[in-house]
Structure formats: C-alpha cells, structure tokens
C-alpha cells in the first residue's frame, strides 16, 4: 500500500453497540475513497463477528480496509459479562497501551486515530507521538454534555445526590428544567471520589478538549442544543448520525448492492421476521434490552406478566447472558416461550434493524441504548423506555419530555405499569407519539441526504482526515 494515502486507525470499545457504529463509520470512510482504514478489534469479538455477521464479504470490496486484532488480556474462558465491564476495559488497556505506542511510533503508518472516548490513553499517546486523535463517542450527546458538566456539579456541592430524586438538576445548561436527579447516569448517586465509572468519565472528559476532534452519532435537528454546548469544549465536533442511515444512504447513492449488513456478535434469528410477516400492521411491540443489560428473574417475570396482561402481541429478545449473576435462563425462556404461544414470540437475538423496519411492529419496549433509540427514530417507531446504565436514563427522559416520542418507565419495574404503558403506547396515545416520531424520522432522512447537515458534517470530517497526512 502507498504510504502517502492517509491511514486511519479505528479502535472501538469491545461492545456490540460500539462495534456496530464504528464499523458503519469505517465503511463510510472506505466509501469516500482515498483512505486506508484499519479496524482494531479484540480477538474474542473478532471471532464472534466473523462467525455471525457478513463483515468479511462486505469489506472485501474495499482494498484499503483491514481488520487487526489484539488480545483483551483475558483468558479465553472468561465470561466477559456486562457486570465485569470495568475489568474488561482495564485488562484491554494493559495490552492496547503498549500496542498503540508501538504502532504510532512508526512514522508513516498511522495518520489519525479514532478511538472510543473511554480510551483516554489513546489521546495521550497520539498527542505524545504527534498523531492527531479524533474521538468517536458513541453515547448520546445529551449524556456526554451531562458528563462535561460533572465538575460543575461537584464544585456546586450537589454530588453525590441525596434525598429527593425528583428534584430538578441545576448547573447543566440546556437541560435545566428537564432533568431530574433520577434521570442522571446511575453512578451520580454514588461517591465520585471512589466510584470506578466516575473516574473513567473524568478521564474521558479531560481528554475531549485535547483531541483533534470529536465524532458523535446524532443529527443537528435532534440534539442541536447539546451539540452547541459540546462545541464549546470541542469546536471540531462532527455530528454525522444516524450513522447507520448515513451509510445506507451513501451505499444507495453509489448503487452498491445493499447486503444484509449485519455486524452481529450473536446469531440473528430470522424466524422473528417470518413471525412478524404473519401479524397485522402496527400490532406488535418489539421488546429488547440491548446487548448488555442484565435483569433479575423477578424483573423478567414482571415484564412477561405486564405484556401478557396487555393482550398486545410481542416479539421479545431474551439474550443468553441476560439474567443477573450469570444465571442460565434456558429453562425460564423455554417455559415463557411455551406459555405465550399465540401472543408472543421469543428469540435470543434478532436482526433488530429489520425488525424495527417491519410494518407489523408498532412500538419498541427498549432499555434506551443510544443505537436502539436512533434505529427506532429512523423507522418511526415510538418507544417505552426502561433505562439502565450510562446514557440511557438521560435518553429516556428526552424521549418522553423533550422529543415526545414515547413513555419513560425509568426505575420502575411493575407488571401493572408495564401493562398500562403498553396499552397506552399501542392504543390510546399511539397517534400522538407516532406522529412526532415519524416527523423526526423524516428530519433524520433529510439530514443524511445531499445538502443535509449530517451529510455535510461527514464530508467535513473526511476532508479533515485527508488533510492530516504526515
Ligand atoms: N441488536 C441486535 N439484535 C438484538 C438486540 C440488539 O442487532 O436482538 C443491536 C441493535 O440493533 C443495536 C445494538 O445491538 O445496534 C445495541 O446497542 P444499544 O446502543 O442500543 O445498546 P447496548 O447494547 O450498548 O446496551
């Protein structure tokens, strides 16, 4: 390969959601042409990706693209569950730090690094070695803005929160009057001096102004106020989302055949689509808590009873590792699948974008992961939110109170609440939420088309990278 062609090194978090959006970014850069792209994945996730997705055949058409893998430092039989996320990240750091140093010390190899925001050390190494770093933060911009305000909240003496969780949060401009304490990331209730999540977020936000730029998966019409605030810390903030829609639109414009486009780490169960084909339009609620959230057996049963009592048809993703404490859910899933026959259909992993695009799906009961939220917005499907970690509590509040495209169950898990919200979303309140989410969907489509801001921002990002030759 020629050395004068700019070479981008993409380094995502070892998570399904981040692998999804960063592979989409990688493909967008490949489509632009004139760039070499290396995607640095962990051995463990690369094996799963190659087994369950079509990435190999999809990326074969881009000669400038390659996968590179490193160990995450954990033994092969380590469960790597969401509950051990902090350990996975620090173990990966022990391998990735020296690896990046060596890779960047080759004076022509890499022109620009695009790491996840949590890999703060990649910014330090890039700055040390004179290689520009553009952070790709795949969480919601509103939550990233809350993160950037954490030092102010501490200075004002309001953290950690005690007392009334319904009290409104001050010191977060653009979100004042909207966010309650219970809408902040779960760790805001813990002690910032000792909590591991806080420490990681502090390191992340310190690096944002030190990086060359910042990429966010959103569009100006959705998150404009928060993007403006973030730009006061990182003027070169590129909002290029919804990234999956930007990619679909560019592939269609180039008449590149749209393959099934899966980046799954689990095997997708396509019988879910067959089952949806047999249901009537808008009649099904899709239930999924993403790739990480873990629930207790009791919570699972509250949702199950709530859904059954609502009498609304449902398609539910019960991931193999989704019960708290690593408990196997095989038996429970079998029993529930048997008992809900005729009303519900349960799979262990679904082709989610296809599911949300299906006309039989009328709503989404979600954990408010940022990818899931954007995918639902693009397909014009209103949501019921049951958020867990990181950005999900902020997002669910915005879904309900700011964008008005769904309901927020927040920290409640009760069968009667589930039943009522499902009935509301799929019945009495359906038209209002559907109308507002369909409007947002249209706006998202405009933003990624020629002349739209996400399309423009992506072009600016590509030009910026191309101008970084070493
Ligand atoms: N997803 C999927 N099939 C499923 C469940 C989830 O393909 O059965 C995908 C979904 O489309 C999304 C990602 O997994 O792109 C989950 O990301 P999100 O940010 O919503 O949540 P996280 O998994 O990080 O909590």
From TrEMBL:
Keywords, comma-separated and alphabetical: Glycosyltransferase, Transferase
This protein's record includes keyword Protein biosynthesis: no
UniProt-listed Pfam families: UDPGT
Superkingdom, taxonomy of origin: Eukaryota
Keyword Cytoplasm in record: no
Known EC number: 2.4.1.-
Protein family: Belongs to the UDP-glycosyltransferase family.
UniProt name for this protein: Glycosyltransferase
Organism: Datura stramonium
Organism lineage string: Eukaryota, Viridiplantae, Streptophyta, Embryophyta, Tracheophyta
